[in-house]
Model the fold of this input.
Amino acid sequence: MPHTQLRYDALAAARNWSPAKTGDFNMQITEIFGENTLTLEALKARLPKSIWAEMKKTIVEGAELNIKVADSVALAMKEWAREKGATHYTHWFQPLTGATAEKHDSFITPNQGGGVVSEFSGKDLIQGEPDASSFPSGGLRPTFEARGYTAWDPTSPVFLIENPNGKYMCIPTAFASWKGEALDHKTPLLRSIEALNQQVKRALSLFGIKTKRVLATVGAEQEYFLIDQEFFYRRPDLMTAGRTLVGAKPPRGQELDDHYFGSIPDRVLSFMLDAERELYRLGIPVKTRHNEVAPGQFELAPMFEDCNIAADHQQLTMIILKKIAKKYGFECLMHEKPFDGLNGSGKHLNWSISTKEGMNLLEPGDSPHENMQFLFFFSAVLRAVYKHQDLLRVSIAHAGNDHRLGANEAPPAIISAYIGEQLEDIIKQLLNGGLKKSIQSGLLGLGTPVLPDLPKHAGDRNRTSPFAFTGNKFEFRAVGSSQSVSFPTVVLNTIVAETLEDYCGELEKNLDKKGFEKALKDLLVKSLKETQKIIFNGDGYSDEWQKEAKKRGLLNLKTTADALPYLLHKKNVDLFLKYKVLNEKEVHSRYEIWSEQYVTNLTIEVDTTEAIAKTMVYPAAVRYINELAAAVRDTKKLGIKNSGAANMLKTVTNALNSLGKALDELAEIQRKMKGQAIGEKCMEYKEKLIPAMNSVRDAVDFLERYTADDYWPLPVYREMLFVK
Ligand code: ADP
Ligand code: MG
Done:
């Protein structure tokens, strides 16, 4: 029974794990913060005044950069990196795989004397050509003209990645084809920031406010699971698909609600402190940590930042969490649904709009009914979400997230907005012709003089909403834990820019006739009347909501296969085109790439399920059947009745037969799959392959409950979730 021995070894190894000595943890956050990133302050200190002035224009106002400035900046960067001990640099970019990519170059160049000098020019900084022809391009980049370029993004600071044996400098860059088409997540994000900037500025000027620049702010809360690596490497499904494809529900999961916000286990806390230290050193402002609902599930949240930097930092956060976890013998699972029957992981994308000077445009203040500027931007977001539910759904569509959306603990696949009692009431007042008051919630008395009266928030929370207004920002909760926050942010920025442009047009048209106040009020009334269907403050998990949403005509795109085709609808292509965020080809390429990814991920899952069933589960069950059969035979010879073994023999044999049948059906479906066009293929996967794969799983999970534990080859849920 070799497999079983491995499982027990894994348990012993996990139990005997002890923390490696990992350095000095007298962590002084303020001292180490940003030491591995070249902050603007540090860059400024290294540049001549005139160069800095030009550089700042680029960073703050988005002005174009000239090569002389770039040369000076490159020199300063290289010196900084070398002082820190870096030998190499890389353009760091975000291809449409959703991960990050890098190709390192050393700083050295040969000199006359046959030696080398270190060199790094403005050109090296600004542009790279990493060939990189194997990244998905969705037809934007045929391999015979495979050039791809990376271009420095001066608005996101460079940083160092460390290894015990050396360091290298990473330069955040955009990635585009030879024709200038975006092959990455950063380019459209930067374009969408510009679109939003222009429209918000225009809107603000109507309110008499001038600002240098407007930005979208993003703070993304990251959920993840930790399991011992000993188990991870014994689970082919976790290794290839990132989630368990088989595994029976343990007798105890999250029912007791005792993990959520519980005291953090020591080994996990050591990991968190270490990971957070690395994040601080990279200048990433992580703020909160806690246990999440499912056993083995945790969360980390940063303070919000400019969305472009937040997106880079979010990618880095995932990288660092995964890397540091290994140091503590853990594997960090970012998948949306690593364990069936337990809560999945999301990434709450908190989003707002702010002026460069720090005015949050979604801050309602104490009496929102008097804050027309707030109501203007707030209604604009609601209208944008109503108008483009489909795009928001597309922006979070991938195979992993399908397990969450619409499953019981995550937001449903229906996009709606939760706005709380106070704002709901204000909208009602507005639609009824007058704005008189903001419901104040007063103090919360706790019934004992030793506890203070707490000020109550104006609205309660609603965890079941995919898009919730939480005080002074919206929280897009349907984003998947493994995905980049870039595209959801691109969609938010662009759809809000569009509504603001519509709003401004309408206001400007009516200003003279009606005066500002009246024109504004009329505009908001008209807009809210049209779009208030998107507001839902009730229970998003309930069946009634599914029915109610249908009545309201809201979309309910249950899976990736249902959602992705909406990307190509004319309204959406036109929108991206109008705001120069994506051209038609770029939109199509994304549809192609994400559909391919859907199919590929599912293919990996199907193949892995089959392999596990045939090569691990089947043999275990057969061994047990042999043992049972021998027992039945031998006891019979002795004239003893053995109905226990005989019944078990029947049960396990039947289950094995069912597994065989399910596997045959899966193979048959695969054989018959004929989908040629990618959209058709996605549908076939969704409608036929996934259910067939689930039937195999059911049979395997049944066998897990009946096969002798010491024959079972796979670490079980109980072990993976509770051994820390
Ligand atoms: P809550 O209690 O509503 O969850 P927190 O202040 O704890 O609010 O914030 C949760 C997340 O929202 C954090 O990542 C935080 O940085 C982010 N956040 C707060 N304000 C904003 C904002 N104006 N724009 C974007 N994100 C924000
Ligand atoms: Mg939250």
Observations:
- The chain has a mean pLDDT of 90.
- The chain has 24 helices and 19 strands.
- Residues 217-219, 221, 301-304, 350-352, 360, 470-473 surround adenosine-5'-diphosphate (ligand 1) (CB under 6 Å).
